[in-house]
Amino acid sequence: MKRIFLGLLLASGTLACAQTNSKLINVAEVRRIESVLASDSMQGRRAGTPGSDKAAAFIAAEFKKAGLQPVANGSYLQSFSVFKPKFLGLEATVNGAAFDSRNVIVVTTQPEVALTQASGYETVTVSAGDDLSGKVMGALQGGKNAVVLIDTSFAKTFPRLQSLKRQLFQGTPNVVFMLTADKPSAYSVKATHSFEETRMANVVGILPGKAKKAEQVIFSGHYDHLGLGKAVNGDSIYNGANDDAAGTTAVIMLANHFKKQNNNERTLVFAAFTAEEVGGFGATYFSRQFDPAKVAAMFNIEMIGTESKWGKNSAYITGFEKTDMGAILQRNLEGTGFTFHPDPYPDQQLFYRSDNATLARLGVPAHTISTSKMDSEKFYHTVDDEVETLDMDNMAAIIEAIAKSSASIISGKDSPSRVKQEDLKR
């Protein structure tokens, strides 16, 4: 909600003296975009709500104005459905005998799934001592119907796989998990569900490359937030100015900057994700539309509206040690007075908690850039995360630093090292 008049007066004063501090990024534009995204009219931008739709339309209009190409079919909206299943019933047999339904979990978006060993499903076996998480995610992301036979040594962990059913994408293949001591010679499973469907959309714009057009560099942030909640001092709108209207503002500003430069050898993809706050569904769906081998780098931008623990002209990079991308960015910023640091909050596992994680797990040098003091960020996930609490001058400096530091990557001169699978294990 709106702050008192004095706060607005001070903010406008700051704006007046800040506009000359950035050569590449116009502070007035930063404030304009940020103020629209975090306005009360957006109703907190919760995924799947009219406020979220309004924000998506605004971002799409900004991408069009910047001169980006639509992602597909003339639209900047990358639409998809998320299904929330309600379990209705399940029957199973193994080797001709009834099988405990508690030892079967069916992940599907179909009202009825019926299968036997002759149904043509791919079989995945998880033996004692195997990497359960890795094999489960491999089956889910493999794009094929699969039966995953899990050894009973994982009996305590098995019920947790129910969480995989909470919300699913349209077109998700059927994956059946069975907890069994031996590989059955015959089995049958019949499961029924009903579904609640929610339509969502990322906003994506493309700036085609030249000599290396087939390779992509992604700039992203999430535009959703918490929406409406319990009123605090009469305010029930969680505006999410820093989280993450700030990152989305940066993406729009970078789109305008690179379009004006018009010298990118690699294709640039600008993405505003939905549903980060409710499970990262937007980034997950987005990542499935790309060949990870062709994504040279991902700059995910999250909460850059406040000073970092080192003060102004600084930010940190999550997963800094997992690739040499951070070193490349630092080298490109030598002499500018701006510094990128490694993530100072490793205990919070931020590398795995933001929208970079899905592509990073596929080997892409995908990192999140942030300034948020995660051990003491005063307005994080509160109704007071509003435009008046942000430092627009510093935001512009951070966006400019991202533009300058990414130059050698978008030109194709530098290609950051890939994330190794062993580096993803916590």
Order of helices and strands: HHHEEEEEEHEEEEEEEHEHEEHEHEHH
Any idea of the CATH class of the largest domain?
Answer: Alpha Beta
Q: Could you tell me the strand content as a percent range?
A: 25-35%
Query: What's the mean pLDDT score?
Result: 92
Secondary structure: helix percent: 25-40%
The CATH homologous superfamily of the largest domain corresponds to: Zn peptidases
How many domain units? 2
Please name the CATH architecture of the largest domain: 3-Layer(aba) Sandwich
Q: Which segments are poorly predicted (pLDDT under 50) over 5 or more consecutive residues? A: 1-21
Structure characteristics:
alpha/beta; Aminopeptidase; 10 helices; 26% helix
Q: How would you describe what is shown here?
A:
InterPro entries: M28_fam, Peptidase_M28. Residues 202-404 form the Peptidase M28 domain. This is Zn-dependent amino-or carboxypeptidase, M28 family. Residues 1-18 form the signal peptide. Keywords: Carboxypeptidase, Hydrolase, Protease, Signal. The chain is α/β, with parallel strands linked by helices. It has 2 domains: 5-81 and 198-424, Zn peptidases (Aminopeptidase, 3-Layer(aba) Sandwich); 97-185, no CATH class. Helices cover 26% and strands 28% of the residues. It has 10 helices and 18 strands. The strands form 3 sheets. Strands 1, 2, 3, 5, 8, 10, 11, 14, 15, 16, 17 and 18 form a 12-stranded mixed β-sheet that branches. Helix 2 (27-37) crosses helix 5 and helix 3 (50-66) runs parallel beside helix 5 (241-261). The chain is globular. The model is unreliable at 1-21 (pLDDT under 50).
